[in-house]
Amino acid sequence: MTKFLRWQNKPATGLRRRKRYSDICNEERFEEENQMAKIQMTTPLVEMDGDEMTRVLWQWIKDILLTPYVDLKTEYYDLGLEYREKTKDQVTVDSANATRKYGVAVKCATITPNAARMPEYNLSQMWKSPNGTIRAILDGTVFRTPILVKGVEPYIPTWTAPITIARHAYGDVYKNTEMKVKQGSKAELVVTDAEGKETRELIFNFEDTDGIIQGLHNKNNSIAGFARACFNYGLDLHQDVWFATKDTISKKYDHTFKDIFQEIFDKEYKEKFEAAGIEYFYTLIDDAVARVIRSHGGYIWACKNYDGDVMSDMVSTAYGSLAMMTSVLVSPDGIYEYEAAHGTVQRHYYKYLKGEETSTNSVATIFAWSGALRKRGELDKLPELVDFADKLEKATIQTIEDGVMTGDLYLISKLENKQKVNSKEFLEAIQARLAKLMA
């Protein structure tokens, strides 16, 4: 009692102490209530970290936009080039297998090293593209869709709805075998069947010149998985599916793609498409390009691997920016891996390392997270997680349409009252709008 009275006889100090104690209690209670209010996940996402400036943005997105609202549960894999070197790229394989286990992944952009990267990262070899490794393991199809915002107008005025590029993610030039050929050589295609019988076809007789040859392959089961993924995605989005090859020239290779698509559609999807009021349309690739340019958008354009690689960049650029392009890898058995369609933004990263300000567009990376969280919420029947993903995307688009944007969009935006902000300021502007939507 004496000690208590002595403490009371120092009113200023006592009040300060009592106020501090009260503040601490209130802060702890606030943090506890906030923790309880966070959206709870029941199944982890597979989180694949990446490289350079996108790795920096990755952590900022989590800190500023995600963890204040969601009790994130992820199984983390570091796909940064240094750790891929340390594990001899086993981490990439492990991340793909984890994706098969949990069904949903979100991936940061990663470096596919060239010769210049060998000394920079002290690499023992030029490791393969992580995307290629993951696609091969999941046997997935890549769907890329532009993000449309007011003020960023497509270069093709008729494109009023997004065009989704569906890219077959197996084979063709990405699994090729190629050789340089000396003059006087004869190149043949040789197939040895299970009984040892050889079948030969002449490729070319290089009688008067050196040359080059290339061997491509694909697998019927992979093509079938590609077809089913496209048709399922069309039903999910309630959009037409277009497919195009050059079967008039490639009468066996490309024609096989055409035949498998048509056979699967007729047997498994025709009635479903008719009931949904959508259609499957096949044409030659050159005719498809002409039709796409004249179209209004709003459909899925299925392309072979190389065609999809080229056309996805064409479509994204024509809509305004590669940084405004979502990408999701979908396997035939319903596994999803979300990422941004662009690279690691190397130039901005070198500026960041020197302490210079950057204005890097993080929209596609934000949408990778929102896409993965939405899918996790749909699969786990968590409507509050789906709602958060919707609001995160809405806040992001609203920020840009309010005139707050990064440098790449500032240069092409038609908005009159626009403001260029740096990388972190852009995320903070999104957070301000997200907080209002989540209130």
Structure overview:
It is a single chain. With 439 residues, this protein is of the alpha/beta class. 49% of the residues lie in helices and 19% in strands. The protein has 16 helices and 18 strands. It has helices spanning 2-8, 11-37, 52-66, 81-86, 90-102, 117-120, 130-138, 220-237, 253-276, 285-294, 305-319, 346-353, 363-380, 383-401, 407-412, 423-438; strands at residues 39-40, 45-49, 70-71, 74-78, 104-107, 141-146, 164-168, 177-181, 185-192, 198-206, 211-215, 241-245, 280-284, 300-303, 325-330, 336-340, 404-405, 419-420. The chain has a ten-stranded mixed sheet, sandwiched between helices. The protein has a two-stranded parallel sheet with strand order 1-3. A hairpin with a 5-residue loop joins β9 (185-192) and β10 (198-206). The longest helix is centred in the N-terminal third of the chain and has 27 residues, at 11-37.
Short description:
This protein is an alpha/beta fold and 439 residues long. Helices cover 49% and strands 19% of the residues. α9 links the parallel β12 (241-245) and β13 (280-284).
Essential attributes:
439 residues; alpha/beta; ten-stranded mixed β-sheet; two-stranded parallel ribbon; disordered N terminus
Query: Would you report the number of β strands?
Result: 18
Intertermini distance: 47 Å
Main beta sheet: 10 strands, mixed
Low-confidence segments, given as residue ranges, are: 1-19
Into which percent range does the helicity of residues fall?
40-55%
Overall pLDDT score: 90
Q: Taking Cα atoms only, what radius of gyration do you get, to the nearest Å?
A: 26 Å
Q: What class do helices, strands and sheet pairing give?
A: alpha/beta
Number of helical stretches of at least 4 residues: 16
How are the strands ordered across the major sheet? 4-2-5-16-15-6-7-14-12-13
Q: Which percent band covers the strand fraction? A: 15-25%
